[in-house]
Structure prediction request, 227 residues.
Amino acid sequence: MENLGRLIAAFDLREVTLVGHDWGGAIGMGAAVAEFGRFARFVMANTAAFRSDRMPWRIRICRAPGLGRLAVQGMNGFVRAALTMATAHPAQLSAAVRAAYLAPYDCWRNRIAVYEFVADIPMSPRHPSYATLEAIERGLSMLRDRPMQLIWGMRDWCFTPRFLARWCELFPDAEVHPLEDAGHWVVEDATEDFVRCVRRFLTDAPAPAAPSPIATHTSSTDFDERN
Prediction:
C-alpha cells in the first residue's frame, strides 16, 4: 500500500481510475484513502477492503504452521491449486496461460510473497495488519462520492457474493454487475463481459474536470482523525 502510494506521488498521478482485484482491493483502496484527492473512479472485482469474520478452509490450510509454508512456498501449492479452484472453467485456461501464472514462482525464494500474503490476512485484532485494514475500512466513506463499479464472479468460493453485498452497503450508488458463471478469476472466466463493463463505465462516469484537492495521509492515526 505504501509502495503504491509512493509510486502515485512520484508520478504526481491525478484523476486516477483504480481497478482492484483480490489483494488489489485492500492495497488500492488503502492508497486511495491515504491520498483521496488523487482518485476519481473505482472498479472493484472479487476483492475486499474491509474486515471479514470468515475464512475458507482452503485458505486456512495454507496458513497452518509448518504445513502451510511447505505447501505454499515449498511446492507452490497455492498457485497450482488456483489454476483449478480460482476459475469456474479451468479447462478453458490454455497451456500458455497456465505456464504464465506459474512462471514467476519457480523456486522457494520467489514464492515467499505468496506465503506472506496468505499469512497477512488479519482475522483478529491481535494480527499486526488488523489495525491497518480497520483504518482502511473506516476511510472508505471518504470515497463514497466517487463513481464505483462492482464486477463480481458469483461462483467465487473465497470472495463470495457476501463480500459483494458488503461493498454495496459501503457504496450504495455503485454500478453492480454480477456475473453468474464466473469465479474468482473473473477476468479469465468472463473476459469479454468484464472489458465491456469497464469500457462503458469509463465512458459513462468520466473523471471530474476539477478533482478534489490533493491530500496525503499515510498513517492509521490520520484516518482516525478524519473519521
User: Anything to note?
Assistant: The first strand starts at residue 16 and ends at 22. Confidence is low (pLDDT under 50) at residues 210-227.
